[in-house]
Amino acid sequence: MIICPVCDHVQPEGTECDVCGKRFPTAVNVATPPVAQLPELELTPHAGGRDAVDAPVLPELDGTRLRSGPDLPAQVVQDLELTRAAPTGEMPVAALEELDTGRAQDDGVRTPAPLGAVTCRYCRNVQAVGLLCDNCGMRLPRARIAATSVAAKGEEDGWMACPSCHTRGRPGRACSECGTRLQEGA
């Protein structure tokens, strides 16, 4: 893969960038000259894995390796504060009246669902129909049909609303969206 140094466009091959037109440097095939060995260098060939090396332990070196057996008995540090608390038992839980939940009192006014022409929140294109914006392709904020109107419409033509997802379906069959069995009178 080639990455353009100007616009960071990634492309599989080519001599220039498909986006900005920057020409890529071409590799020059130059034959590498033969390398002569220096006569003063000592060759240290190593064949077949690890070789045995005679390495005696230095007597003046302090060994810090732990022994395999128990070295010392565990000691309790008197001044160490333990983070584990003792069980407290049953404590009464009371609500805090002075705690502000950050919610205002409900005034009953609701924001109406967007009906008719909708403005795309990304490109500000105004569009009357469709779920996707014709300009940028993003999803438009459309309101779904209320479950009560779906149920009322379903009673007229033999369809009913799914009790789980409110998708219209035929009674006695599985819902096409969630798979719940649609039963009459439910």
Characterization of this structure:
With 186 residues, the chain is low in regular secondary structure. Among the domains are: 30 residues, no CATH class; 43 residues, no CATH class. The chain is 6% helix and 6% strand. The chain is built from one helix and six strands. The strands form three sheets. Strands 1-2 form a two-stranded antiparallel ribbon. Strands 3-4 form a two-stranded antiparallel sheet. Strands 5-6 form a two-stranded antiparallel ribbon. A hairpin with a 6-residue loop joins β1 and β2. It is flat.
Short description:
It comes from Myxococcus llanfairpwllgwyngyllgogerychwyrndrobwllllantysiliogogogochensis. This protein is low in regular secondary structure and 186 residues long.
Helix-strand blueprint:
Layout: E1 2-3, E2 10-11, E3 118-119, E4 126-127, H1 147-157, E5 160-161, E6 168-169
Compressed to H and E, one letter per element, the order equals EEEEHEE
- State the separation between the terminal residues, measured CA to CA: 59 Å
Q: Total helix count?
A: 1
Please estimate the helix content. under 10%
The shape, in one word, is: flat
Structural class: little secondary structure
For the report, how would you describe the main beta sheet? 2 strands, antiparallel
The residue ranges in which pLDDT falls below 50 over 5 or more consecutive positions are none
Strand order of the largest sheet: 1-2
Proportion in β-strands: 5-15%
Question: Roughly what is the average pLDDT, rounded to an integer?
Answer: 78
Beta strands, count = 6
- The radius of gyration over CA amounts to 39 Å
